[in-house]
Amino acid sequence: MDRKTFMKQSSLAGLAGIVGGKIPSNEPKKSSHSMLNDHIRIGFIGTGLRGRNHVNNILDHPKVQCVAICDIDPDAIERAQQIIESKGQKKPTVYQEHEQSYLDMLNDEKLDAVVIATNWRWHTPISLAAMEAGVYVGVEVSGAFSVDECWELVRCHERTGTHLMFLENVNYRRDVMAVLNMVKDNVFGELVHYRGGYQHDLRTVKFNDGSGGLLYGEGAYGEARWRTAHSLHRNAELYPTHGLGPIGAWMDMNRGNRITSVASHATKARSLKHFAKNHPTGGPNHPYATTEWALGDIVTSTLTTARGETIILTHDTNLPRPYSLGFRIQGVQGLAEFDYHTQRVHIEGISEGHRWDAGSEWFAKYDHPLWKEFGEEAANSGHGGMDFFLDRAFIEGVRREQAPVIDVYDGATLRVITPLSERSIAEGGHPQEVPDFTQGAWMHRKPIFGIGDL
Ligand SMILES: NC(=O)c1ccc[n+]([C@@H]2O[C@H](COP(=O)([O-])OP(=O)(O)OC[C@H]3O[C@@H](n4cnc5c(N)ncnc54)[C@H](O)[C@@H]3O)[C@@H](O)[C@H]2O)c1
Questions:
Q1: pLDDT in tens, 273-289
Q2: In Å, what is the CA distance from 58 to each residue of 13, 113, 136, 390?
Q3: CA–CA separation, 287 vs 283, rounded Å?
Q4: What mean pLDDT is predicted for residues 104-123?
Q5: Which of 30, 250, 257, 294 has the maximum number of C-beta atoms within 10 A of its C-beta?
Q6: Residues 310-342: pLDDT tens digits?
Q7: Is 141 in the pocket of ligand 1 (CB under 6 A)?
């Protein structure tokens, strides 16, 4: 037995022990077929709203076969099956018995890749089990629960050699990629500051019984089944990655630069109570109107980087407001502030006086080559087209058996902000050190996101 196989078996045995599942077989899972010529065999774990987006996009790729799906909700399984059938694929094997059925799936199937789109609770255990089984992982976005779990993912990747792509789709947004192009062309000059965040009114997502009523937890609909509990129990930057992922690409995160610290503050938590009190099915005595919610309505985090830049991240999901990730990037020659509703750029010496230029003109000029090539194809993929690029990068990474463009080190760095911000808020805003998950390699790793054809 070689070292890798031994390590894989011991770790899987350990994992199965922890979660009470069946120990996967001793057969190495890594297939010998040629990934580029054959179809890659994929499994989907978590086929809720987001998981089905991935099923829909990924099965449009001519070289992908879905062999298995896993979810504990029969409705989610049924809906995923309908999509798979509509793509002309054979019925996949279904794993749906219990929350650890993914272990049976990893054990029984010869998989090349899995997409994990469960609730946040399961991202790390399933990613670890899949990497141990030699299956290339694509895992949806979330914040971590602990610093340790981020290290576990990194160590597991290093021990097994199995890749993990962190599926941050906003990195592929057309404006975000145009700005990346501007950064590469040094339009802003040396960079000093970035802003972003998750500013999305989730009140009707957090309270949703499926027909407009107030409910979360068991019996609720969609993310209200699990996401709301985080607002009840955790005061933290709960969802850092949509804001920080793009900033990570602009600042060369883990590739010449790195995030060094985070300090967070939270406002009082008022808005969920207010919402329940004034909801047609709520009222002043409704239990949700008197609940002490932990999550401050706005959480503001200041991050520092090794190159001496700062980043302000905002988490704002309880208050009434239009959706905005509120991006800003600023260097010694100028800045861009942009989102769907505003796009403005000022570059010294080019923009008139202290005026803004229309961002759309700059972004059209710097449209990323990937968007120029695939923009039309991407149009129907979801989230304005960015999901097409994300799923394409994942599948092509698997087929080429190469490291993903948003890798396990990036995933660990983006996710670790959540537990560190939680600790910082609890300590009155005290800055927390962000671990160097690359263990020094950031100093010589070269930027890859948006540079090659993925
Ligand atoms: N990138 C984006 O644009 C985007 C958009 C929406 C959601 N998300 C992320 O995608 C993930 C899923 O979100 P969603 O909106 O699809 O939630 P959802 O509740 O609709 O789906 C989650 C699914 O996971 C299943 N599940 C839970 N535990 C499981 C387990 N142990 N094994 C197998 N299946 C299990 C549930 O039954 C459910 O069907 C989250 O991380 C969320 O933050 C990302």
A1: 999 999 999 999 999 99
A2: 31, 12, 15, 10
A3: 9
A4: 98
A5: 250
A6: 999 999 999 999 999 999 999 999 999 999 889
A7: yes
**Residue 139 Cβ contacting ligand 1 at under 6 Å:** no
Q: Which two tokens stand for residue 91?
A: 């019925």
Band of residue 33 on the pLDDT scale cut at 50, 70, 90: low
Buried b / exposed e over 224-233, threshold 16 CB at 10 Å, is bbbbbbbbbe
Number of alpha carbons in the 13 Å side-chain half-sphere of residue 333: 12
Pocket test for ligand 1, best of 119, 176, 202 (most atoms within 8 A of CB): 119
Report which protein residue has its CA nearest ligand 1's atom 11: 117
Tokens of 47: 């086929």
Please give the angle made by the CA atoms of 390, 393 and 397, to the nearest 5 degrees.
145
Q: Which CATH superfamily hosts domain 171-370+408-443?
A: Dihydrodipicolinate Reductase; domain 2 (3.30.360.10)
Measured CA to CA, the distance from residue 212 to residue 223 in angstroms comes to 14
What spacing in Å lies between the alpha carbon of 50 and ligand 1's midpoint?
6
| CATH superfamily, with its number, for domain 3-162 | NAD(P)-binding Rossmann-like Domain (3.40.50.720)
- Per the rule left: phi > 0, alpha: psi between -120 and 50, beta: everything else, 233 is alpha
The reported pLDDT for the residue numbered 356 is 98
CB 264 within 8 A of CB 311: no
Helix count and strand count (H, E) for the chain = 16, 15
Centre of ligand 1 from the C-alpha of residue 51, in Å: 6
Q: Is the pLDDT of residue 4 over 80?
A: no
CA dist 51 and 187 (Å) reads 38
